[in-house]
Automatic annotation (TrEMBL):
Pathway: Organic acid metabolism; glycolate biosynthesis; glycolate from 2-phosphoglycolate: step 1/1. It comes from Pseudoalteromonas luteoviolacea S4060-1. Belongs to the HAD-like hydrolase superfamily. CbbY/CbbZ/Gph/YieH family. It catalyses: 2-phosphoglycolate + H2O = glycolate + phosphate. This is phosphoglycolate phosphatase. GO terms for molecular function: metal ion binding; phosphoglycolate phosphatase activity. Its EC number is 3.1.3.18. It comes from the Bacteria. The keyword Metal-binding applies. Keywords: Carbohydrate metabolism, Hydrolase, Magnesium, Metal-binding. GO terms for cellular component: cytosol.
Length: 231
């Protein structure tokens, strides 16, 4: 299989953005008279979109309280978006070697597939000066979210490649399941926002501890051959 496209997750894969979301969530919680939460908690809660993050904040738990009112959720979510619009990218940082690796991969078409809303995704990419590296951006408010395979199929279509010609790179259970649901190989990164889940249990084709580790995998265009050698 010849590699013709690379699909990246954003938060926890390319960017450590928890501080921005932590501040925004606590400001939103304060606005609706709910107790603030810790950065460690937020780090475990991100990855499933803004709505789910806000509900987890209101519940002060990964599992959402089913008794939360729709009015409260809507109000807190609106306040989060208001604060995040101001704070997005203020404290976020690229993970080590991200920009140098993106430069090295400049000849290969690339996409971002994220559960983050489009407005915030574009803000973050521009703030960190990496927006020009990507040909396609598919966001959480464009349609279904990961682990649904739809956003990966949409990215492949826009890149002009088949799922067999692309690879997904992400840090979470949602990324791995989305790739597997789409029939696409996946590189899982262990350093990101995995919500305490052992990614090895999902049997991704490749498991890397550093972003730089993806280079020897991607530089070999025959990914099937690499997999056979690894086995």
């Amino acid at each position: 299989m010849s590699l013709k496209g690379i699909i990246f997750d954003l938060d926890g894969t390319l960017v450590d953005s928890v501080q921005d979301m932590h501040w925004s969530l606590n400001l939103a919680l304060s606005d609706v008279a709910f107790p603030v939460v810790s950065e460690t908690q937020v780090r475990d809660w991100v990855g499933n979109g803004i709505d789910k993050l806000v509900m987890r904040g209101l519940s002060c738990n990964f599992e959402v309280n089913p008794d939360l009112s729709e009015v409260l959720i809507r109000q807190a979510t609106e306040q989060f978006k208001h604060h995040y619009h101001t704070l997005v990218g203020e404290y976020a940082q690229l993970y080590q070697d991200v920009e140098s690796v993106l430069r090295e991969l400049s000849a290969i078409p690339k996409a971002i597939v994220t559960n983050k809303n489009r407005a915030f995704t574009l803000q973050l990419l521009q703030k960190l000066n990496i927006d020009t590296y990507f040909d396609v951006i598919v966001c959480g408010d464009d349609g279904n979210k990961k682990p649904d395979p739809e956003p990966l199929h949409a990215a492949c279509k826009e890149l002009g490649v088949t799922v067999q010609e692309a690879i997904m790179i992400g840090d979470s259970k949602s990324d791995i399941l989305a790739a597997q649901n789409a029939g696409m190989p996946v590189i899982a990164l262990t350093y990101g926002y995995n919500q305490g889940f052992d990614l090895k249990q999902l049997n991704p084709e490749y498991l890397c501890d550093r972003f730089l580790d993806i280079i020897p995998i991607l530089n070999n265009s025959d990914l099937k051959q690499i997999k056979e050698q690894d086995d």
